[in-house]
Specification:
Helix content: 40-55%
CATH architecture of the largest domain: 3-Layer(aba) Sandwich
Strand content: 15-25%
Number of strands: 23
Structural class: alpha/beta
Shape: globular
CATH class of the largest domain: Alpha Beta
CATH topology of the largest domain: Aldehyde Dehydrogenase, Chain A, domain 1
Number of helices: 15
Radius of gyration: 23 Å
């Protein structure tokens, strides 16, 4: 099998490979990918540093053209790349193709942003002096991405980094290197100069650590666990570099008595169980007021009975497998914790067998949960959700905000009063009204509060806050 190599200083390199396994069929090897070592990372960082002066001063049309060509190729290959994504991560094929389209849209958006780079000219408070405010590229950017969105999250970090003139050292999750390799290959062929984009695949303990230890990186943008995010922060403070963190979530979906039951059930099912619950924006706390509680639980349970768990590539599959054996064990451990804590297992919780060997788990719904239980406090990152009964809106809002996280928060209601109040008072970076807590647009800011995020927002024009630094210049007339 051909080894997909690392890209360092414009050259494909590396021989030692790791296998990428299909979670829908563990007998299938998706691909063989090189593993970088600390010396490879040092070489990639040196290459990015050497390429920065020229790329940071490159013309906006050059950047626009490369990003636009990349987006066009991703879109043209959406079925192929979507199938690759489904095979390596386990997301259903329609979801995987949708994510691939999203990646193409992100590159398209930032190809336009490259042509819209702007600053300000202001009068000075002193006579005969002009003031010019501009944004300049930050420098060499370290990018570390997670396994749950193998093409979209790399896209929304890589595209703005290049748009604003930065060079990159990119480490994708070692569990899902395929889509990341494909993006880098497309960018490389689109005409990026040598050293601007460097790909170093491999273990976080080796590749990620070497990046954290480097004093050369001007910034690191990271999406992943809270534990690793804290390590990124500590190392960045030590080296005096900028850092951006997107970490966990324990997102609430509030359902009020006046909610449209069909809308509430659809939003909750999508939030909690689609993409196998493996989304930082997934809602695993369903906070439901007394008047609608029993009807909501009954309707959601009936909905779960209709969801088919199967091979991600198979037509009619609603929920694919869990990404790997380690995550599956985490999910089943939490299901047992929920039982021991006294929550009632209302549906699911069992492993299932299919035609191909894979990490298949039924969507799991607990009722009679409290917000103090571990299953209500800790991020599970699987198809497991708990229903928490509350008296009224005020208690629902208090419970929704009672979490160390603050990424996304949702409410199902027909009350304009409650919707307006919730949007203002939900302690989250994103609020959804009568919509799933997961699912965001590519042209608007993404990010949270509290333990979920740190640093400037991602996506849209707000991405400039992280990937650029501001310069103020004074000129005597």
């Amino acid at each position: 099998m051909t080894i997909h190599q690392n890209l360092i200083a414009g050259e494909w390199t590396g021989t030692a490979g790791t296998e990428n396994i299909n979670p829908s069929d563990t007998n299938e090897v998706v691909g063989l990918y090189a593993s970088a070592n600390a010396q490879d990372v040092a070489g990639a960082i040196a290459a990015a540093k050497a390429a920065f002066p020229a790329w940071s001063r490159s013309g906006i049309l050059e950047r626009h053209t490369i990003l636009k060509k990349t987006g066009e190729e991703i879109l043209a290959r959406k079925e192929e790349l979507g199938a690759l994504l489904a095979r390596e991560e386990g997301k259903t094929l329609p979801e995987a193709i949708g994510e691939t389209i999203r990646a193409a849209q992100i590159f398209e958006f930032f190809s336009g942003e490259a042509l819209r780079l702007a600053g300000e000219i202001l009068p000075s408070v002193r006579p005969n002096i002009g003031v010019e405010i501009t944004r300049e590229p930050l420098g060499v950017i370290g990018i570390i991405t997670p396994w749950n969105f193998p093409i979209a999250i790399p896209a929304w970090k890589i595209a703005p980094a290049l748009c604003y003139g930065n060079t990159i050292v990119f480490k994708p999750a070692d569990l899902v290197p395929g889509c990341s390799w494909a993006i880098v290959d497309i960018l490389h062929r689109a005409g990026l100069p040598k050293g601007v984009m460097n790909l170093v695949m491999g273990k976080g303990s080796v590749v990620g650590q070497a990046m954290l230890d480097s004093p050369v990186l001007s910034g690191i943008t990271f999406t992943g666990s809270v534990v690793t995010g804290k390590r990124v922060a500590l190392s960045s403070v030590e080296h005096g570099r900028k850092y951006q963190l997107e970490m966990g979530g324990k997102n609430p979906m509030v359902v009020l008595d006046d909610a449209d039951l069909t809308v509430a059930v659809e939003a909750a099912a999508n939030s909690a169980f689609f993409s196998t619950g493996q989304r930082c924006t997934a809602s695993s706390r369903l906070i439901v007021t007394e008047g609608i509680h029993d009807k909501f639980v009954a309707a959601l349970t009936e909905k779960l009975k209709t969801l088919n768990v199967d091979n991600a590539l198979k037509s009619g599959t609603h929920i694919g497998p869990v990404v790997d054996a380690k995550q599956l064990k985490t999910d089943t451990d939490y299901i047992e914790i929920g039982r021991q804590e006294g929550a009632k297992l209302a549906f699911g919780g069992e492993l299932v067998s299919r035609d191909t060997p894979g990490f298949y788990l039924q969507p799991t719904l607990f009722t009679e949960a409290t917000n103090q239980m571990r299953i209500s406090r800790e991020e599970i990152f699987g198809p497991v959700a708990s229903v928490i009964r509350v008296k009224d809106y005020d208690e629902a809002l208090a419970v929704a905000n009672d979490t160390p996280f603050g990424l996304s928060s949702g409410i199902a209601t027909t009350s304009l009063k409650h919707a307006t109040h919730f949007k203002r008072n939900a302690e989250a970076g994103m609020v959804m009204v009568n919509l799933p807590t997961a699912g965001v647009d590519f042209h608007v800011p993404f990010g949270g509060r509290k333990g979920s995020s740190f640093g400037p927002r991602e996506q849209g024009k707000y991405a400039a806050e992280f990937f650029t630094t501001v310069k103020t210049a004074y000129t005597l007339a």
